[in-house]
Amino acid sequence: NSQSFVYFNEVTASQDFYNVAGNREETLTINGTVKTVKSGASDAVAKAAEDAALAILDDLETSLTGDPTLAGAGFQVELVGPNQSEVFPSDNSRICLLDFVLRAVVMLGD
């Protein structure tokens, strides 16, 4: 029995213009948290919660890098973190929290 959540705590966007080359750089930054909850109290359950959280974060990164609308646009994704913490509540479950920053940069030409 498990639950998973993704929180986008802050999403920002910026643009830098390079007039000489006629290019611009657009940056999207997502500060977020992945939270997975698994029933049970063993080390294996804690590891399963961690694995599930990392898989969700990997899927998020893959969906950005695989976006066909960005093909050939000089697109790159940088993952900062994640910073991991585990919570052991008294209700016989294990929680894994991954705080992350995902930064996507696109170079666009005129």
Give the structure's gist in a few sentences.
The protein has 110 residues and is an alpha+beta fold. It is built from one helix and four strands, in the order E-E-H-E-E.
Written account of the structure:
The structure is a single chain. The model has no long low-confidence stretch (mean pLDDT 81). This protein is 21% helix and 57% strand. By secondary structure, the chain is of the alpha+beta class. The relative contact order is 0.28. The chain has one helix at residues 43-65; strands at residues 2-18, 23-39, 76-87, 93-109. The radius of gyration is 18 Å and the shape is elongated. It has a 4-stranded antiparallel beta sheet.
Descriptors for this entry?
four-stranded antiparallel sheet; 1 helix; about 55% strand; elongated
Topology:
Layout: E1 2-18, E2 23-39, H1 43-65, E3 76-87, E4 93-109
Antiparallel strand pairs: 1-2, 2-4, 3-4
* Helix/strand order: EEHEE
* Overall helicity: 10-25%
What does the largest sheet look like? 4 strands, antiparallel
The structural class is alpha+beta
